Amino acid sequence: MGALGSTAVLTAESIANGIATGAASSMLPSVNFPIGDWNISLSLAVAFGNASGIGANFAVGYNDGNWGFSAGVGIMAYNNYYGFGKNAIEVRNSIMASWDDGTTGVSLGTNAWSGDFLQRTGMIGFRSGDFKIMYENDGGAGIKHLGLGDRNDSYRTAALNIGIGDFTAGFNLFTGRRNREDQQKEIKITTSNKKGENPVINYVDRFGTKYKRGYVNEVGEKYRLGALTLGYGGFRIGANSEKVRHAIQDVVIHGLIKDCGFMNTSWQWGGFYQYRTYNPFTSW
Q: What is the rounded distance in angstroms from the CA atom of residue 111 to the CA atom of residue 151?
């Protein structure tokens, strides 16, 4: 298999199957048990498209005025997760705290993932009226400072979802492993503020793309997803390309923190199509 995950073929049949799957899952009710300020819920989880699987979500929530606290567990069985050849059981344990006055709200959360891609991601959310935004990362500004993520740079490395009503736009980026131990093996220079930075080498790869500070020390399989999407409800459609991932992750994010980049494994455009049931804890 290639390093870049395979993409779903956007045929009329695949889209029709996705719509049918989404319609079927929306008709399966979640079970809620409200007990005073507490609420316990159990619901079916369905994904179809580039990542297809089925599972369940369990959550417990508590509300006190404008404040809300919740914890959840999600279990999914995937078939060829994003084309990476993985068919394992994935378990997600989540905790989230939020404040919402009915018009404006903020939320902070953390997700501990087990399975083939073991990691912990953090989530920061904001809403104002019908506008909402959710950012998820294993490190990154805010998330690493608040200790919400594991401060690595691996796997589900970044996701951004912006919505107005039921309409959404965003991206999901996925790479191979680069934990903090892997990063210690990269060449660093000490700056005046005693922070280590990767030296400028201005390397150009086989696709003619410039890497100002060279490559990261990526260990194992070079998994790749660079999905840029528009969506409605649980449906998302768009493109999957290293051009998307490289521009957002290597050029913008790593450029701002003077870090090296993940090696491009291809330079083509592919399609992306995904349906998944809504989950307030994560964009994955």
A: 13
DSSP state of 14: H
Residue 88 has a pLDDT of: 81
Q: Assign 208 to helix, strand or coil.
A: coil
Measured distance CA(168)–CA(234) in Å, rounded: 9
The parent domain of residue 170 ranges over 12-276
Cross-strand pairs, 96: 70, 109
CA distance 157 to 48: 21
Residue 207 main-chain phi, psi, to 5 deg:
-95, 5
Residue 7 forms part of a structural domain: no
**What averages of pLDDT result for each successive group of 10 residues across the chain (284 residues)?**
44 48 56 96 96 97 98 96 90 98 98 97 98 96 94 97 98 98 90 81 95 96 98 98 98 95 98 96 96
User: Where do we find the tokens 């494994």?
Assistant: 265
Please name which of 55, 54, 56, 52 lies closest in space to residue 18, comparing C-alpha atoms: 52
Strands 225-232 and 67-79, by their bridges, are unpaired
In a domain, 93, yes or no: yes
172 part of a folded domain: yes
Q: Would residue 56 count as lying in a domain?
A: yes
Domain count of the chain? 1
